[in-house]
Design goal:
Largest sheet: 7 strands, antiparallel
Number of helices: 17
Oligomer: single chain
């Protein structure tokens, strides 16, 4: 039996290695013009078949021309990464932010992945911001604190400004607004660079500090082994290992309770281990609880109901007069969460979203049954196919030549929460306030519920195509394309279409303020509160 298991393990490893080698060969070889044109046609076919609002911001004639022009420019064999650089800007012309093209990446064997996990790439510790047409280091999670606030001039000899300009053509906001571009390219610059260049062991980056230039080489370095035993102090004369003091029963219970509380808090606030931050934060500014501040980095993880219930209970108990809701750099997340949050911010009954336009009576099956879904899951899905299909058919209906899906929970009229907030509300927004952030902002803006401060949201006022997604892989180049399948929108609309929620007070960050750690948008609100208090 052991011999059989050993042989099976050997076969799995060999097949895995062969699969890795085959994938890497596929993405690095030169693809024929015929195969490249075939991938372009298949991608456009998938968009036309599944995207319910493909021609919302660009006409069919214009988009046909873009894809035809792309094919005419590809007249010689190229590899997958070069193909990605050509096709991503064309897909961006759709101007639907949830449609995304991913570059191909090298795969690693099991042993290679094991070794890579022991290292970290210093370059990925850099956080960027694109301000005043220059790329700056917003924060560095490494030890070299001198890098914060420095301008990035070149990376491996290429102009940082040119790289940013190029990367901004490879994604889209919802519609015609452009506030998302500088924000999003800043937030994801390392990812864009990786998609563009691929795997690297080191990168030479040149920075500018005032009038002088200096360079740093960022490498893959060994991670600290946290499991290493503690060594005796250098001045210790003992050769024995330092013994850990045994805890008493009471101390063990205290430690156990603290650990349990930390786990609950991590779920409630949505702990982000990579950045050692929480998704949700709530606090009072000042000693008298007159001003409350809530920072929401996304709507995508954690026990949100418990967080909001506790937060608004505190607001009610403190009789807080001013509430600041910070949605800056919040890229969105769950509809259920923003619906729940809005129920604490309104004093009227409301319908959160309308029925969602789709292209199929079975949108969830379309989402799941893609060529990127593992065959094992496809086999499993066959068992549940009748149930899912019946559910989808029950939830969808045809009207005026279109198909609509109904989220009963979010489309019905609901009352506000009994402990909803009635005081003065300020909302901070910027270009990275996208998707769900824009959707809840639409409600608050349409009902004159808040004073908005910052810049226009990157997500559209009139909704977005998201909800559920289909990920399709092009057969020859292995490029993946993600597309939303449902039009998600609030009942309220604005004209013209294609723009975000605009602030009542426009305040754009300046480099000087960033370097001095001054939050100009929040400062304006606090001064306005002081003026009226």
């Amino acid at each position: 039996m052991k011999r059989i298991l050993f042989m099976l393990m050997v076969i799995v490893v060999l097949v895995s290695c062969k699969s890795v080698a085959k994938h890497n060969e596929q993405i690095t070889k030169l693809h024929s013009v015929e195969n490249l044109h075939s991938d372009i046609d298949k991608l456009y076919h998938q968009l036309k078949r599944h995207h319910p609002k493909l021609y919302q911001y660009i006409s069919k004639e214009e988009l046909d021309f873009k894809f035809d022009s792309l094919k005419s420019t590809i007249n010689q064999p190229i590899d997958s990464r070069t193909f990605y650089r050509k096709i991503a800007p064309v897909v961006a012309y759709v101007k639907q932010g949830h449609v995304a093209v991913s570059s191909v990446s090298k795969r690693f064997t099991r042993n290679e992945r094991k070794q890579l996990k022991k290292t970290s790439f210093e370059f990925y510790k850099l956080e960027f911001e694109y301000l005043e047409d220059k790329l700056w280091v917003k924060h560095y999670k490494g030890k070299d604190s001198i890098l914060k606030g420095k301008e990035v001039v070149t990376i491996e000899g290429e102009s940082a400004k040119d790289l940013v300009k190029r990367y901004k053509t490879r994604f889209a906001s919802d519609g015609y607004n452009i506030t998302l571009h500088n924000r999003y390219v800043s937030k994801g610059f390392s990812t864009f660079y990786y998609r563009d260049k691929g795997f690297a062991d080191s990168l030479k980056v040149t920075f500018r500090s005032k009038d002088s230039l200096f360079s740093r080489v960022f490498k893959r370095i060994e991670k600290e082994d946290k499991k290493k035993k503690k060594r005796a102090p250098e001045d210790s004369t003992s050769v024995e290992e330092v013994k850990v003091n045994k805890l008493s029963k009471e101390e063990k219970n205290v430690k156990k309770l603290a650990k349990r509380k930390r786990r609950k808090d991590n779920r409630k606030y949505g702990y982000l281990g990579e950045n050692n931050k929480y998704t949700r934060n709530f606090s009072f500014i000042g000693k008298d609880s007159c001003v409350a501040y809530m920072k929401l980095r996304s709507f995508s993880n954690g026990n949100y109901k418990r967080f909001y219930k506790e937060s608004f209970t505190k607001l009610d108990s403190a009789n807080t007069k001013y509430f600041i809701l910070d949605l800056r750099d919040n890229g969105g997340g769950r509809i259920a969460e923003i619906d729940y949050l809005y129920s604490y911010l309104t004093d009227e009954s409301y319908q959160f979203i309308t029925e969602s336009e789709v292209t199929s009576r079975t949108p969830f099956l379309k989402s799941f049954m893609s060529n990127t879904t593992p065959n094992s899951l496809k086999v499993l899905s066959a068992v549940f196919y009748p149930v899912v299909a019946a559910h989808n058919l029950f939830k969808t209906r045809n009207r005026d030549g279109k198909t609509y899906y109904k989220f009963n929970k979010h489309t019905k009229i609901k009352p506000p929460k009994p402990m909803h907030y009635n005081g003065k509300l300020y909302v901070l927004i910027n270009g990275n306030s996208f998707s769900a952030s824009s959707l809840i902002s639409t409600h608050l803006k349409a009902n004159n519920r808040a004073t908005f401060v910052g810049e226009e949201t990157g997500g559209a006022y009139n909704g977005t195509v998201a909800g559920i997604y289909k990920i399709y892989q092009l057969p020859n180049t292995k490029i993946k394309v993600r597309m939303g399948l449902m039009q998600i929108e609030a009942p309220q609309k604005q004209n013209p279409d294609g723009y975000g929620v605009k602030p009542d007070i426009t305040i754009l960050p300046k480099l000087e303020d960033r370097q001095l750690n001054i939050d100009t948008e929040l400062d304006w609100i606090l001064k306005d509160i002081h003026k009226h208090d």
